[in-house]
Design brief:
By secondary structure, the protein is mainly α. Helices cover 83% and strands 0% of the residues. The chain has seven helices and no strands. Helix 3 crosses helix 4 and helix 5 crosses helix 6. The radius of gyration is 18 Å and the shape is globular. The two termini are 27 Å apart.
């Protein structure tokens, strides 16, 4: 069903933005000084946007799963049928978890915590959301050792691609900022630091 595919896309892009962008800022930028504070303000607005992606995508997933299970068109669904999926099926429970975590990420984006704490928490939330996607995918259907290997490979793929996508978002944010000398130096330094890890990430995705 199209709504489920769209929902998966929104959740993955949103979670990648939370995890990958936060990870990039913590480990590839120097988290102090005026330029970083300016970047952080832009990133907080970005986190609000992508947390809404995850939230809306997860809610759409519940609706799509409920329509599939009950073999009903979207306009014939009752709210009780959606909540039943959320409370009785594993896919519904994991999706509900993503709704809660995305709302937490939304609230966290409005916090005034220290930058390093704030970013590490957003990174942690993004990791959990991305990992939970593996438990509702093909890798979770296998059993035994094969299932563990398949699930582990899916998680590594999700996290690797999520870090890559999040880093691209971070670079885009830097490129859209005012081109001061300090921001340009931070961007160049971050690109130099990230280039080595980029090859490893691509190998993980492949």
């Amino acid at each position: 069903m199209w709504i489920i595919n769209l929902a998966k896309f929104l959740q993955y892009v949103g979670a990648s933005g939370l995890f990958g962008t936060a990870y990039f800022l913590v480990f590839f930028l120097k988290p102090h000084g005026l330029p970083f504070n300016q970047i952080l303000n832009s990133v907080k607005r970005f986190f609000i946007f992508v947390s809404f992606f995850v939230f809306s995508g997860a809610f759409m997933s519940l609706i799509g799963y409920a329509a599939n299970v009950n073999d009903l068109p979207l306009n014939k669904l009752a709210f009780s049928q959606v909540t039943e999926i959320a409370s009785t099926m594993d896919v519904g429970r994991f999706t509900s978890l993503r709704i809660i975590l995305s709302f937490a990420a939304f609230l966290l984006a409005h916090s005034v915590w220290r930058a390093t704490y704030f970013l590490k928490l957003q990174c942690f939330l993004g990791v959990i959301i991305l990992t939970s996607l593996a438990f509702t995918g093909h890798g979770a259907k296998d059993e035994g050792a094969k299932g563990i290997i398949h699930l582990g490979a899916d998680i590594a793929h999700l996290l690797g691609a999520g870090l890559w996508i999040g880093a691209l978002f971070a670079f885009l944010i830097l490129l859209l900022m005012e081109k001061t000398k300090e921001v340009q130096l931070l961007t160049f330094d971050a690109l130099s630091r990230f280039s080595g890890l980029g090859s490893i990430i691509v190998a993980t995705i492949i």
